[in-house]
Amino acid sequence: VGLQGSGKTTSAAKLALFLRKRQERALLVAADLRRPAAIDQLEALGRQLDIPVYHENAGPDDAPRVAANGFKHAKDLGMKWVIIDTGGRLHVDDGLMAELDVMKSTLEPQEVLLVVDAMTGQDAVNAAAEFNARIGLTGLVLSKLDGDSRGGAALSATHVTGVPVKFAGTGEKPDSLEPFHPDRMASRILGMGDVVTLVERAQEHVTEEQAAELERKIRKAQFDLDDFLKQLQQIQKMGSLTSILEMLPGTRGLRSKLPTGALDDTRLRRTEALISSMTMWERQHPDRVNGSRRRRIADGSGMAPADVNQLLNQFRQMQKMMKQFASGKRRNLTGMGIPGF
User: Fold this and answer.
1) Which of 125, 148, 227, 248 has the fewest CB atoms below 10 angstroms from its CB?
2) 215-241 pLDDT per residue, tens
3) For residues 188 and 330, what is the distance between their CA atoms, to the nearest angstrom?
């Protein structure tokens, strides 16, 4: 439940994916019958994530009936969870709040989660208090926590309601929903990083065998552009560069010192496009990529030969750095470029 535009539909789909990763099946129920294309949005997310969605062609006042039918359908399918996406509503709208009362009394849900936009202010706190007073909440979901806002006002919502923040949406990707840990969030706000969450994200996308193979290649100076492409793709799965940086200790204030656009994920995608335009031989022998090959790579990626030159030059610097790490030598690394940054 929540205000309009708080991110309920996206959060519902993310929660279903979160449960599936834990081997628990969930059915999404489209009970937002007032917002245009709300059902289409939930269905699109369901197709993208391969999660079933229940919906009906019904009028705007039929949400309680649709929710009840969806609940029954989930039982018939043997689903463990039913996630009902309700329409956005203002807490001062008695008619729409009464609709939630009917849903709750009919379905007796185990959880009633209020989705709160982490970038909103005092309005979010007032809404949380009223939603809790009218229907009774069991938890909060902070959405859009990847923005510049630290979510201070939204976190105040847990104080006025007395219910915990259970999940936080940390990005636009479907898997960017994580259980909320107060100590970890406090550590991020104080600039102390969140290494535990960073390690957990890395473990989701990198196996021990992959990590061991990468270490072997670095030690033997066999790290090539194909390996680098795989690393870029794994980083993008872990979240935005900004969110990753926030989890590293000692990086508070670093964002303001970086050049404009240094943490723009578009640069990663541009680098990925350049490497994807290379043949496997070129990725394995970047030092032997001549002028004609550079022009072909540039044309294939939609970029200029200068972009290819910059990538290859920075990759050479990176290889030198890795050789020094492998040999145990120490060196001041200030100013060394990393491809794509």
Assistant:
1) 148
2) 777 777 778 898 888 888 877 777 666
3) 30
Q: Say if strands 81-86 and 113-117 run parallel, antiparallel, or are unpaired.
A: unpaired
Q: DSSP state, 252?
A: T
pTM over 0.85: no
Distance CA 169, CA 146 (A): 7
Residue pair 142/169 in contact by the 8 Å Cβ criterion: yes
Cα 132 to Cα 141: distance, rounded to the nearest angstrom: 14
Rounded-to-integer distance, Cα 318 and Cα 271, Å: 15
Tokens standing for residue 324: 């020094």
Tell me if 129 sits within 8 A of 161, measured CB to CB: yes
Q: What is the DSSP letter of 37?
A: T
Q: Could you please report the per-residue DSSP string of 177-189?
A: EEE--HHHHHHHH
Give the other-Cβ count within 10 Å of 253's Cβ. 8
Q: What is the pLDDT of residues 305-331, one digit of tens each?
A: 999 999 999 888 887 877 776 665 444
